[in-house]
Design a protein that fits this description.
The chain is mainly α. Helix content is about 85%, strand content about 0%.
Length: about 110
């Protein structure tokens, strides 16, 4: 019984940390996909099957695969651990990552 009480006291602190890790992972991946979609749509038009926009998006997804999104989300979660200020902390992190992605897209010529 004592062990259950100890576990229940420890869970809330761990839940907040898990929430920010999960939130960071979701936010980083969603922002990366949105950056790829926006980049390709702005340069090539709609991303319809067989279109230049769709071809651009496929290349952009390849860049996302090598960009280290999981590592970036871990770093964001470490810097933005406080659930109370998570969104405020997250915004500039996502902005920096999006800027870096746009540079990678430009460097790849897509």
């Amino acid at each position: 019984m004592m062990m259950l009480a100890a576990l229940s006291l420890a869970a809330p602190g761990n839940a907040g940390a898990a929430d920010t890790r999960d939130g960071a992972l979701y936010a980083v991946n969603a922002a990366a996909l949105a950056a790829a979609i926006t980049h390709c749509a702005a340069r090539h038009g709609e991303l319809q099957q067989g279109s230049p926009g769709a071809a651009c998006f496929m290349r952009a997804r390849g860049i996302l695969g090598t960009f280290g999104l999981k590592q970036r989300s871990t770093e964001v979660a470490v810097r933005c651990q406080d659930p109370a200020s998570f969104n405020t902390c997250l915004t500039p992190e996502i902005a920096r990552m999006t800027h870096a992605l746009n540079q990678e897209f430009a460097k790849a010529g897509i």
